[in-house]
Amino acid sequence: MTAARPVLDAPGTDGAAASSPRLIPYVPVLLFAPCFIIYAVLFIWPQLSLLATSFVDGNQWSVAHYQRFLGDGYYWELLGRTLFLGVITTVITLVLGLPVAYLLARMQSRWAGFLLVITTFPLLVSAVVRSFGWMVLFFRDGLVSKLVVALGLASPPFQLMYTMSGVVIALAQVLLPLMVLTLYGVFRSIDRDLELAAMSLGARPSLALWLVTLRLARGGILAGSLLVFSLAISTFATPSLVGGARAHVMSTAIYEQTIELLNWPFAAALSSILLVFVLVLALVYGRVLEGRGQTEARP
Amino acid sequence: MSSPWNIDQLDRRAFMAALAAVGAGSLLPASAEAQGADFKGRQLLSSGFGGSTMDIIQKAAFDPFDAATGAKSTQVPMQSAAALARMKAEAGNPQIDMYQFSGGQEAQAKSEGLTEPMKSVPNLANVPGGLKDPDGHWVTWAVIAEGIVYNKDKIPTPPTSYKDFFKPEYKGHIAFPAITNGFGMDFLVMLARTFGGGEDNIEPGFAALAKLKNETIFKAASDLPGLFGQGDIWIIPYDTGNAFKTAQSGLPVAFATPQEGSPAVPITSCIAKGAKNADVANGAINYLLKPEAQIAIAQGMRWSASNVNTKLPAELASEIPAVSQLAQLDRAKINANRAAWTERWNREIAR
Amino acid sequence: MEIVIENLAKVYGNAHAVRDFSVTIAKGEMVALLGPSGCGKTTTLRMVAGFIKPSAGRIVVRGRDLTGLPPHKRDTGLVFQNYALFPHLTVAENIAFGLRRRGVPAAERDTRVANMIATMQLTGLADRLPRQLSGGQQQRVAVARALVINPSILLLDEPFSNLDAKLRESTGLELRRIQRELGLTSIFVTHDQNEAMAIADRIAVMNGGAVEQIGSAVDIYERPRTRFVADFIGSANFLSATVEARDGNVVTLRHGLGVSVLPVEGQAFDKGRSVTLMVRPECVAIHPAAAEAGLGTIETISYQGSSAHIFVKLRDGDRTMLVERHGRELAGLEVGKTVDLNVKAQDLTLFAA
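Above: the input entities. Below: the structure tokens describing the complete assembly.
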């Protein structure tokens, strides 16, 4: 039977850390260099030579390939279809992914980790294999095509195979995990107490979600959307396998020009045009984020 | 133009085998026949068609060649079009010694100066003039006959003509390959011929194809089992080899030779200019031209032989169109128009 | 009564996070829920706020049963441990948030926000974002945001734990002043006994999901009802003792420091029983003694300015007693010196077993 609770304070441990790292000016440069060199050799240089290729016609410099693209409604339609694919896929993954990511991020149960793994599991399977899976379901006798007919959404004979709708469905499934992962990270970083605070101040749960959590997640939602959009407009395997000849998009056209028709300059021009769209989007996105940064901040 | 033989494009096993061959090939024991042990320890890399096609060719020609000479031959799966692109990209420093083409790429490869003439290939003499390059840059070692592949249960009387694709009772049950698939291009040309045109006058072909534009269009041979397996695709313009393969999978599928003729697709090989193992490649090509190899290939895939000395067994010969039934397409004209027709096809047929 | 909480309980599977929590709080009273982490104090607070659904019991505020109501209908002002300020809204917008939800007209809203900004000494900061504020300022915004809606009850979850020690006391007293002025009924959760004792009218000491004792700071410090309370609040010396004799409600106890006579009630203190005595360090008298006569030896002296903690190792065993003396009354007391210790019977608290 004893004695007192020790009241002694632990000896001070808050002194200056043993040695604060003194940064030698060139250390950051050295750390950055390998990445930059790889980036330069494997991305910037090929990208520049691609751009250069797109301005070659025969043996001379020319904008003929761009003129051909811009002056032809067919290619505008191709570009429009590609951008539409990107937009619709982004919207679908956002609508499906947002609630899933939110619930996973807020879930306290020990199943949450398991469910997250399940959600992202498709990422471990290549898009080609997943697209083959969809093909089985999309042929006329496939489960999904039959279901669409059974629900009265289409009249037989109907198949999702070789249609743009099929590509959208397959692509949404392929890209959904990326959206969920991105949004999951975003929601995890938003303090749940903020929503509770809003509720205690009189906001209905849905309003608290809207006014606080979704407002704070805006940057992450934009990031996830940009990621999915850029992948959707540049992906090749799914449109090629599921869409076949009819659902022609920029990526399959680039492939066709490169591999089938060996018209590399025109393929390079198509690639550059697609790249410009992605870059413009990324810049706009950056702007939006910047603007947001002035009035808002993440917790 | 893509090869129809891309069934298992990404054949991992073959790819790994290629890697293994590069790494460990020199350690492999070479069992050599007395007369040809001169490639002992040498490696040969060839492009290949992938999947079971590649395996059959390996067993029919490359394996016996390796056994006889001590070489180690590996095929790297690659679509014909992609193979030509690779050949172009590696011009001057070829990593792949020899190429196999199914879409007429050999002519373009020669014209772009990517090939070198074959040397000391004794069997070259047994190949008829139309099936080899006059300068010896490429040689046909098999011929694929195209025609009509149909569902025997739905169409009890074998089709006889390309005109059968326009029978009203088949409407909604037709599929045809995209123009980027070599057979799709040949289908267009054959339709043009059927309706009064040809390589020089493609209009009738596009006019006829436009009537089929609402039918199913597919891109790759790998879609074939899916299409026939459904039961509601009855008739497809394709080749003997895939008809045979699909029938082997248990589907009620047969091949019919149209009266307009079966377009012949030459399967060729050529040697990359400056290939380090050009001598080995020459030896391997000689083996591809051997009657034994060509019979094995015909048995495995129903591809026709090119060596005049190859005598196919009777039951095999009956399943493959006779030489008299083959339609020789003007590949040079087709190649010259490929880009324009592809553009037009994309706009008028696929849209 | 302003707030009545009856038999509140929360069960997770087999674990009782809170069991049988009952308290009645008068208007304007401030009650602290005090206990170690995991004692159920935060769960209790969150049940009152409506974030956690109780397994049993009810919560009645101003005669209105809140038990089944969602948080946004409870009219509670809540200050979070991390303040939970909306990072994308300015100070003024944060404060106005609750008023907007209540549909308060813009003019009135602006006035109330401005008044609150003045009251909480946030003048000039109205257009700042939370991340541009110091910790103390953020804390005041959190309080302002909770107060501006005139809540029927103010709940505070460890409101001072993120402030540095110097700010903590002044902020606490300031909050107490405002709470008194507004006559707000309040519950706050803390693990810091000094904070609870300095600010709260009454303290509920919780342990393992249950309330050990509710009472004023003096009650709890001087008359702890359980060993846990005695040990948790302040410092305590525990002595084992034996009942030597019992005469009615008076017992004679023998313990390490001698013999004491105490009044008792109950069966647990019959003759021969072993019991435990608790004495606060400041209630132990210490004197230098002759080497052979003393009860123990000074092991350590921890000088803290206004006071000094003296650890005395008793001769009969390894027990150490903590004695607190005024910082200037250390004459004759040095490490290694033999000392005598005395306690007065009225300073002893007796626990069965």
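Note for the figure: Chain A touches chain B through 23 residues (CB under 8 Å).
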